[in-house]
Amino acid sequence: MKSFLSRESILVIMLLAICFVSEAQKCRPSGMIRGKKSPSGQCNQEQDPDCCRPGKMYPTYTCSPAVSGNTHAYLTLNSFEAGGDGSLPSECDNKYHNDSTPIVALSTGWYKNGGRCHNNIKITANGRSVVAMVVDECDSTRGCDADHDYLPPCANNIIVASKAVWEGLHVSKENWGGLDITWNDA
How far is CA 75 from the centre of its chain? Predict the structure, then answer.
């Protein structure tokens, strides 16, 4: 009996199937939030000058890119101390944390409903690595409200870090605020 498909055809079909599966696994926005005007003085611009703009649409995410041994992310700066720009206690333990401790908040998908709470991750940039503990979520599903200091929802690839992480990576203070990094579970 003669086969209808050659080996090359089968290979092409298999490659296409793999492409479709990997495309389906990408994290796409799960919705949108419309920005609102914050009451006077309510938008916290200490580390992030981009308050929600009235009428602007912001994407929300329930997922983050897949975690690998070398996951790409964008590192931002936040204070986890009482009175700091984080404003609320950390999600993992409802406590404030000292900024001299290497701690982080992860985008919603990576935070895994608290599944990474108090676990360590390794952050790498500039040829250096720092181990930091997960204590909070950078909410990718909500924003532009009082609970989020009238800031937009986090992107799906954000790691928010304490000053200790930035110091450990040997980033000069004038460059603190945003940095492309890689990370993995430690």
Answer: 8
CA distances from 77 to 7, 17, 22, 178 (A): 53, 40, 32, 7
At 60-98, the pLDDT tens digits run 999 999 999 999 999 999 999 998 877 789 999 999 999
Confidence (pTM): 0.82
CB 44, CB 150: distance < 8 Å: yes
Q: Is the dihedral of CA 113, 77, 183, 155 positive or negative?
A: positive
Strands annotated E in the chain: 31-34, 57-60, 71-77, 103-107, 120-125, 128-138, 158-161, 178-185
What are the CA-CA distances from residue 54 to residues 35, 37, 60, 140 (Å)? Answer: 5, 5, 16, 19
